[in-house]
Amino acid sequence: MNKKFRKAVPILETLSEYEPDNAMVWTNLGAAYLGNPVLAMDKQQLKAIAAFEQALEIDPIAPNVAYNIGLIYRDRQEHEEAIYWFRQAIKANPA
């Protein structure tokens, strides 16, 4: 995780406590946990998935969130989960 993302994580974690119903906060927190999805460690990926799922709970059609979850599962070689989330992304934004 690079320095920018490392600095963003605690800020976004605190913000998520103050704005728990803000899907964008959770989406950005998930992205910050990843930093670089290819280099993200298992623990960071799981935290990112949890943050992205929280964003979807608040806003089921939040842009690119389901797709990002699919990318994480793809990188983890969990293909069935990846396919599921890619399909969810298409349902949320068929265009």
Structure report:
The chain is mainly α. The chain has a single domain, classed as Tetratricopeptide repeat domain (Serine Threonine Protein Phosphatase 5, Tetratricopeptide repeat, Alpha Horseshoe), CATH 1.25.40. 74% of the residues lie in helices and 0% in strands. The chain has helices spanning 3-18, 23-34, 42-58, 65-75, 79-92. Helix 1 packs antiparallel against helix 2. It is globular. The N and C termini lie far apart (32 Å). The mean pLDDT is 91.
Order of helices and strands: HHHHH
CATH class: Mainly Alpha
What portion of the residues fall into strands of 2 or more residues? under 5%
Q: Please, what is the average pLDDT?
A: 91
Helix/strand class: mainly alpha
* CATH T-level topology: Serine Threonine Protein Phosphatase 5, Tetratricopeptide repeat
By CATH, the architecture is named: Alpha Horseshoe
Tally the helices: 5
Largest sheet: none
Q: Work out the count of structural domains.
A: 1
Radius of gyration: 13 Å
Q: What is the count of β-strands?
A: 0
CATH superfamily: Tetratricopeptide repeat domain
Helix share bin = over 70%
Which spans of ≥5 residues are poorly predicted at pLDDT below 50? none
User: Overall 3D geometry?
Assistant: globular
Q: What is the distance, rounded to the nearest whole angstrom, between the alpha carbons of the first and last residues?
A: 32 Å
